[in-house]
Structures are given as structure tokens and as C-alpha cells.
Amino acid sequence: MNDRAEWQPLRNELQRWADAGRKAKLWFRDDDAIEPTAALDQLLALSDRFSIPMALAVIPAHTAKPLANRLASQKGLTITVHGWTHRNYAPDETKKQELGPHRPQEIVLDELHKGFDKLKALYSEQFAPMLVPPWNRIDKALLPELAPLGYRAVSVYGSGKPGQPIALVNTHIDIMDWHGTHGGRPHGELVGYLVRELQNRFKGDDEPIGILTHHLVHDATAWDFVTTLFEETAVHPAVDWRQVGDFMG
């Protein structure tokens, strides 16, 4: 077990859960998979080493058999739909979106239908009918239209809002510093975010806590965070790492 001081607040919070006989539900999502890479191998090796299930958000338009062949024997892996091309259609001065209101709805839905069918065919055993919108953004008007295409859930970033037309299985801790170093965030900062999420759940919020990574852009700090997180939690009596399908209703 790692003895780094910045992880002590997490140990303390998990001890509180253990003392209360409770388990926190966590799940893991990694985005932007297209093809086999050394970085993906590194991520999957961590999944194997610690027996942590993962959801991989695959970009349908750009992927093919090579990735499916690489992942076919991977245990504890769920494949989800990451938009269609992961292309931005929003104006330059606004936040990036592929699934925003910037194109006719029927075109966007047709692409999401194609993406669903393609990944379901490539990953018959591992596919989960969940949409992961690129950049974690989607036009709210699309949400009621997803179930007829076969989707059962959407995963974006932040606390899930009740009363949505489709289940939300969100992520809450993004380990990357997108607006600063473009590498992994400092461990103490991420531990603080995770402890706050755990404290909210301890009070009664039952939403599973989602950890979000992007294997293709990890630096040493990011990889070290994932490894240490798994070391601290994989066999902890107060942590229940789950497959995302468990939360899709």
C-alpha cells in the first residue's frame, strides 16, 4: 500500500465507511478509444492487475476490427458509444460539441443510430447501450429520442439530475487538467474531490461515483494516480467497484 500523505484523507474517509459497515459504489470510464495502442495496453494491464472493471468509450466512425480483436478476451470490460466521429460542430467561441443543436436533429440521431449498430456488431458480448457524448455535452432535446434507437443510458460529467427521459450514469472525477498542464491533476487535489463525493454519498446520495480518464493523453502523474487509486481501493472493504451496466436500470 502506498504511504503518500496526500492520500491520507481518502484512507480516513473510507475507514469511516468501513466502520459504518457501508460500501461506496465506484465505476471507471475511459474515453476516446479507436485502435490498439501502448497506452491502452497499459490501462488494460491495470484493470487486470487489480481486477477493476472498466467502461471504454469507443469512437464508432474511426474504429474497426483491430480494436475489437484486441479487446475480445479482456475481462470486466464494457464498450460504450462515444458519439460518432468526435468532431466539433459548435462555433469557435463556444464550448465544443458534436451532439449540440448546431445540426439538424435527424442527422445527429442517424449518426448515433449508426454508432450504436456498429459497436453492437463489433462487441456483441461487451457492448452496453450507453451513449457517452464527446466533451460530455449533449443537446437536451436529443435525450427523449435516444431510447427508440436502443440506448438505455447517457453518461456525462457532474451530478445526475433526476427526472430525465433517460438514465444518467455520470462521471464525477476527471483526472486530467485540460485547461492547465494538460497532464494529470495533482493527486492531493483529486483525492479532495473524491473525498467530497464520498461525503455526499455518506449523507444518503446513492449515485455511483464515476472516475474519468483519457488513456491516450496520460502523463506520468495521471498514470500514477490511477495505479495508486487502485492500490488504495481494489480490495478495500468499503469500496465496491462495479461494471457500468449495473447502474443502467
UniProtKB/TrEMBL annotation:
Q: Which SUPFAM superfamilies match?
A: Glycoside hydrolase/deacetylase
Family named by the database record: Belongs to the polysaccharide deacetylase family.
Q: Give the protein's biological function.
A: Is involved in generating a small heat-stable compound (Nod), an acylated oligomer of N-acetylglucosamine, that stimulates mitosis in various plant protoplasts.
Q: Which Gene3D superfamilies is this protein grouped with?
A: Glycoside hydrolase/deacetylase (3.20.20.370)
State what protein this is by name.
Chitooligosaccharide deacetylase
Identify the species of origin.
Rhizobium mayense
One Pfam family per UniProt: Polysacc_deac_1
Q: Where does the NodB homology domain start and stop, copy by copy?
A: 34-154
